[in-house]
Amino acid sequence: MDEYSLCEIGELTAKLSNGWIKKKWAPVKKGATWINNGTENLRISRENLEDYISKGWIKGMITSRWS
Predict the structure, then answer these.
(1) Greatest Cα pair distance in the chain
(2) Is the dihedral of CA 15, 9, 22, 59 positive or negative?
(3) Residue 20: enclosing H or E segment and its boundaries?
(4) In terms of Cα–Cα distance, which of 51, 52, 33 is closest to 43?
(5) Rg (Cα) of the chain, in Å, rounded?
(6) Model pTM?
């Protein structure tokens, strides 16, 4: 299940009523968090956080020194 979704303008009201929140240019699922494995970022449900941490992922995003 994706935790992040672009949607058509006509879908926005339905997404918001189903618990999504509107961000800069796309709704983002409430209750999600960023994790990384040192090379890649992933946005997951907080409910699954402990499973990923036990597999070596850490909380937070990798950010480029160029950004």
Answers:
(1) 40
(2) positive
(3) strand 20-22
(4) 33
(5) 14
(6) 0.53
